[in-house]
Structures are given as structure tokens and as C-alpha cells.
Amino acid sequence: MAKPFYYGGQAVIEGVMMRGRDNLAISVRGPDGKLNTTKKPLPGIYKGRLRETPLVRGFIVLIEALVLGTQALLHSAQVASAEEEEEKIPTGLLWGIVAASLAFGVALFFIAPLLVTRYLIDPYIGSALVSNLVEGFIRIGIFIVYLKLIGLIPDIKRVFAYHGAEHKTVNAYEAGSPLEVDAIKNYSTAHTRCGTGFIFIVLIIAIFVFALFGRPTLWLSITSRIVLIPVIAALSYEIMKFGASHAKNAIIQILLAPGLMLQAMTTREPDDSQLEAAISALNEVIETENSEEAEEQLA
Q: How far apart are the C-alpha atoms of 219 and 196, rounded to whole Å?
């Protein structure tokens, strides 16, 4: 019996991307008000054996989110701005954007807290454990402030509403409800497999991982903040996956609560048109994969 597949996706500019087992679909509303839905097959690395291998899959999911997420955002920007032709994004440019995004995230959420702690806090404390705890709290604080600030941008508010639409649609589908606007409206904008929750887990796990190394020299500390990110991502993904599969457990619910509460900063209540975009993307990817399965059975 095949393992159940859990659909998910992300918000893009004026639309939603949904990822399936073998395909993804992006639905974007153009300036004319019409939905433009595109489907694409997933590259092998995002659906092969490594994608299901514990610990390894966490790192692959991180790369997948960065690469596919960037591609989906660039595609949605072109559709939403009514560009007549969508040119293929050069591989070099795509990886350059991914690298720049990753470098910005590492610098803001890992290097900056380390420098603040090392130069402003450490002179007054003697414990390496306390130093790592303080650094971790600063890291979480920066993340929360960052979300708060970008949430003030009108265009980002709309993206957050599409994020809410994505969550509502997936929640409704997993509950067995029909994929219709009226049926989806009452579902939550929070979801246990959300990327926001994943990042929050990463920030928490980072405290424990870095604490194992004590308080080495500054350059060794900076190096550890960079090279250990794949390890932290791998551990965090396994924790998130376990939590999502045991979400009805009372203890797990308590542990998941902070991440779910944080999603209130990255989601908004969507309107009907935003829900329609999420429904369109999910329907497209489900119908595509059902059709492919039917063809395989007839072959």
C-alpha cells in the first residue's frame, strides 16, 4: 500500500504554488483578473529515494524550498505584471538569487546574533551555555522583528493572505472537505507543516547544536554557524515531520503551539479570489497526478 502523500506549497505574487508527488502547479491572477495556472514536473532530486531518506531529506527540502520557491516567485511576478512572454530563467541567475537569499538569511539570523552576543553580551557573562542561550534568544527576536517589519509592506500583506489561502485549502483537503470556496473559508490559516514553523524549529535546534561547541574563537564560531546549517535543517525537518504526524497528541500540540502562533504573522485571512487561486493550484496538481496514475495502470 502506497504511503499517503501530503500536499503543500507556498504563496507567490498574486497566487499560490502547490507541490504534488511528481508535479507542481502555480496559479497566478493576472491584471485582467483571470487565473493563469501552470503545471511543471518536478526534477528527480525532489522526488527520488533521497527525498524520503531520514536526515538527508531535510537538507533536500531546504534546497527545494529555495530553488523551487524562487522559480515560482519569478514566474508569478512575470504573470502578475502581464509580461507577454515568460523567458526561461538562466540557471546561473537562478542559483545567484538562491545564493544571495541564503547568504542574507545566514548573515541576519546566524552571524548577526553571534556578533551582538560576542561583543556586547559576552564581556559580562562567564558561561558558554548562557552565551549560547542569549544568542539563541537574540536570533529568535531578530526573526520576529523581521516578520513584523516585512508584514507592514502592502504587497507582502497580500502574499501573506495567499499564504493563508494555501493553508486553508490544504487543511480542507486533508479533512476531506470539497475544494470549494464556501467549504474552505472556516478552516484555519495555520498548518503544522508550514515553512514558518520549520524556521522556528531551526532557530530552537540551533541553540542546542551550537551549545555543544561551547564558546570557541570568533572565526570558528562563524564557521560553525555556516557549515552546521544542513545538520540543523535535517534535524528540524525530522522534528517537524514527527510533530505533524502526531498533531493530535496533547503534548505535541503544546510543543507545536509557538510555531503555530508565529504563523499569525505570516498569514492573513484571504478573500474569495485568493482562495480560488489556491484551489486552482491544488486541483491542477491532483488532477495531473491522478491522470498519470490512470495512464500507468492502463499501460
A: 29
The SS3 of residue 235 is helix
Cell readout for 272 is 474569495
Mean pLDDT, rounded, for 103-117: 95
What does 150-203 look like in DSSP terms, one character per residue?
HTTSHHHHHHHHHHHHHHHHHHHHHTT--S-HHHHTTS-S--TT-HHHHHHHHH
In the chain, domain spans: 8-286
How many CA atoms within 13 Å lie on the side-chain side of 157? 5
Q: What is the pLDDT of residue 296?
A: 58
Q: Which of 162, 200, 52 is nearest to 170 (CA)?
A: 162
Q: What distance, in Å, lies between the first and last C-alpha atoms of the chain? A: 20
Strand pairing report for 15-19 and 8-12: antiparallel
pLDDT at residue 66 greater than cutoff 90? no
- Return d(Cα 135, Cα 118) in angstroms, integer: 9
Report the alpha-carbon distance of residue 136 to residue 110 in Å, rounded.
Answer: 9
Residues 6+ apart with CB under 8 A from 162: 11, 12, 14, 15, 16, 270, 274, 277, 278
pTM above 0.85, yes or no: yes
Residue pair 167/267 in contact by the 8 Å Cβ criterion: yes
Encode pLDDT of 146-191 as tens digits.
999 999 999 999 999 999 999 999 999 999 999 999 999 999 999 9
In the chain, pLDDT over 70 holds for what percent of residues? 93
